């Protein structure tokens, strides 16, 4: 191995040059998430244009490079592979309605990726992400810590924004998670949420009812329906999901061990087995390293099982 090869920075490969994939590649370079980003897509003309556009801004970013190819070989020996390839969600269409075509694509794509990057950490982003992640794990037999989904990391950020905007505090001081499916059956863990160390369920009582049950229900509704609203208005969600994905990638590359609600295969946790969904999880260089046993109310446990049942039904329907 040459000295030049030894100095090669870890590669982050992004599969799919659509709105989400291209924005993840761009964001990774702007944030300094990765020094080397490669982009793969079967649409060579679109891919070339995205790579060229991003390349023209590299003098304004931290040191980095981007390459692209319609040949999966470009992903060889990648440290992290972010999979965004799949059917585009249309206005009014649920994520679960994307399942069949996306699972078929995933089954074709994963063996080719594993040939060139068998040791990479795989982060599945394609929707419905929980079903896609379940399918990818079952077909590849990969360890669940090595392959997991982006889950509700974005949804949790939406929740924190909604809380912060409602009560007038910095979003960074809100600690709250959305769990379950990344989709219509997801829900906030209100019982463990806090603001500056103050339990969120106490906030309304101490601050004039500003975050009462009606307000919390409205925030939760906005979180669940945010993607529909954005897709209706501009055709795709891309900015916030790219930032969410880059935080996951950074936690892997830098062994940050952030607690992130990524989608992993549950094996008896909370009485759920054999399906992927999101629970706060320690993410580091070993991937999705440890799922936390978050205190939940009886009602929240029921909602989590209902969410798991929804994912399982779709997975079985599309033979995931």
What name is given to the CATH topology of the largest domain?
A: L-2-Hydroxyisocaproate Dehydrogenase, Chain A, domain 2
Structural class, from secondary structure content?
Answer: alpha/beta
Which CATH C-level class of the largest domain is it?
Alpha Beta
Residue stretches low in confidence (pLDDT < 50, at least 5 long) are 1-5
The overall pLDDT average reads: 93
Tell me the layout of helices and strands.
Blueprint: H1 3-6, E1 11-15, H2 19-31, E2 36-40, H3 44-55, E3 65-69, E4 80-83, H4 99-116, E5 121-124, H5 129-140, E6 147-149, H6 153-167, E7 174-175, E8 178-179, E9 187-188, E10 194-195, E11 198-199, H7 200-206, H8 213-234, H9 239-253, E12 258-260, E13 263-267, E14 273-278, E15 281-284, E16 287-291, H10 298-317
Parallel strand pairs: 1-2, 1-4, 2-3, 4-5, 5-6
Antiparallel strand pairs: 7-10, 8-9, 10-11, 12-15, 13-14, 15-16
Helix pairs in contact: 2-9, 4-5, 5-10, 6-8
Domain Lactate/malate dehydrogenase C-terminal: 152-316
Keywords: Allosteric enzyme, Cytoplasm, Membrane, NAD, Oxidoreductase, Phosphoprotein, Transmembrane, Transmembrane helix
Subcellular location: Cytoplasm
